[in-house]
Amino acid sequence: MSATSPDQPAVHLPPAQKAMATLLVMGATMLVVLDSTIANVAIPHMQAALGATPDTVAWVLTSYITATAVGTPITGWLAGRFGRGRLFWISILGFTAASALCGMAVTLPMMVAARVIQGAFGAFLIPLSQSIVYDINAPSQQARALAIWGAGVMAGPIIAPMIGGYLADVFNWRWVFFVNVPVGLLCALGVFLVLPRFPDARRGFDLIGFLIIAVALCGLQLALDRGTQEDWLASPEIIVELGLSAAAFWMLAFYLPMARHPILATSLFRNPTFLTASMMVFFILAISTASSALVPSLLQNLMGYPVSTAGIVLIPRGVALALAMLVGARLMKTVDNRLLIFAGLGILAWSLELHSQFTLQMDRDLVIWSGVVMGIGSGLAMGSVNFMAISSTTVELRTDAAALYGLFRSIGQAVVIAIATALLAHNLQVGHAELGSALRIGNGAFVPSQLMVGAPSGEVVARIADVEINRQALMIAYLNDFWLMKWALIILMPFALLMRSSRAPGGAPLVVSE
C-alpha cells in the first residue's frame, strides 16, 4: 500500500497493536453487554440475601438501565474533554469497581447505588468501543471490524442468562458481579498501554440540555420498566413519569437547535443516512431482542427447561448471528446495503413465522432451527445498519454518533420489550377468560385424566382445569407476540429500500490481513 493510498484508518496502528486493541476493547464491551442481562437470573437469590420484596428487588435492574440511558448522551462531550482512550480505560475501572461493590452489597440500597454507578460507567463503553473499532481500521476493513463488534454486542444478551445461571447455581449469585473484576482490570491495563489518542471535538458542557434529556430518559425508562408491575395508565406513578418524559422531549426539540453547545450534536439530525439507520436499529434490534427474551421465558415457564438448558438451546442462534455478520461484511463490498437490510428483515420475519408455530408438544429442533434463522436475519440486517450509521459521520463526531445511535438502540429495546411484556400479560388474561368460558366438562374440550380412575371433588377438578387453561392461554399469548412482531418487520421492509444506496469501500472481498 502506497503512502498516498486512500485506504488509511483515521488512527494508524501497527497490525499487532491493532489486534491487541481490538481484543481488549471487545473484552470490555462484552462485560457491559453481558451485565445488562446476566443479573436477571440472580434476582431470586438477591431477593433472599438482601431481604427485599419482589417489588423492591426490581430496582436492581431498573437502576442500572436508567443510569445507562442517562449517561449515554454525554459520552461525546466527555470524549472531547478527556480523549477517547483515556475515557475508555477510566470507564472500565469505574465499571469494574462498581461490579465489586455489587458483589459485596449486603443491603438493597447499597446494591442499587452500586448498580447506578455501574450503569453510568458502562454507558460510555459501548459507543466508545464502536467508534474506536471503526477508526483504528482502514476503510476496506471497517465493515468487517464493525461486524465483529456487532456480533459481540448482539450475542452477549443471548449467552448471558446461561452464564449467570451457571455462576449463581454452582458458586453464588455474587459471582455474577465478581467475575467482572479480573477481566475488567486486565482490559483497563491493556487499554491504557495500547490505545492511542483520537481526534475528538472539544466543546462546552450543555447543563440545561443534559438536565432536560436526563428527565426525558429517566421518566421514559422508569415508566417502561415499571409499567407492567404498576398496571400502566391505571397507576398515577406511570402517568406522571410518562408526562414528564413527553414534556422534556418536547422541550428538547425546541432547545437543541438554539443551544450554543448542544448536549447532542444537532448536525447528526440533518444527516439522512445516520438518521435512517438509527430509526432502523430502533425497530430491528428491539424486535430481535424482545423475541430472544420471550423464548427462554417460554421454555422455562411452559416446558420446564432449567435456565442453563434454555441458554444452551439459544447458542446456535448466537453462532448463526456472528457468522451472518461476517458474511454480510463481505457482501457489503459488492451488494447494496439496502438489499442486505431488506433480505435480513425478510429472514427475520420468516423466523418469527416459525416461532408462531411453537406448540406445547414441540421438541428442541424447532426452537433451534427458528433461532438459527433469526440469527441469520439479525446478522445481515444489523451488520449493514451498524456500518451505515457510523460510516456516514466525520471522525470528530464519531463518538457523538455512536452515543446517539446507542441511545436509539436502547430506547427501542426498552419500548418494544415493554410492549411485548404488556401484550403478553393482556393476552394471557383474555385467553384465560375465553378458554374458561368455552370450557364444558364432558363436551370433549377438556376431560381430566383423573376422572378416568376416580371421582375427585369439584374443587380438585376446577384446579386441574385452571392449570391447563393457564398453560394454553399463556402459549397463545406468546404466539400472538411473535405474530405481531412478524408483521411489524414486514411493514418495515419497504422502508429499507428508501434508504440511500451505499456499499462498503472497495470493490473486492474483504482482506483478512493488511
Summary?
It contains 20 helices and no strands.
Structure description:
This protein has 514 residues and is mainly α. It has three domains: 14-205, Growth Hormone, Chain: A (Up-down Bundle), CATH 1.20.1250.20; 206-262; 267-439 and 449-514, Growth Hormone, Chain: A. Helices cover 75% and strands 0% of the residues. The radius of gyration is 24 Å and the shape is globular. It starts with 14 loop residues before the first helix and ends in an 18-residue tail after the last helix. Residues 1-6, 449-453 and 507-514 have low confidence and may be disordered.
Shape category:
globular
Assembly classification: single chain
Total DSSP E strands: 0
CATH superfamily of the largest domain: MFS general substrate transporter like domains
The main sheet comes to: none
Strand portion, in percent?
A: under 5%
Radius of gyration over alpha carbons?
Answer: 24 Å
Distance between the termini: 9 Å
Task: Label the CATH architecture of the largest domain.
Answer: Up-down Bundle
Q: What number is the mean pLDDT?
A: 84
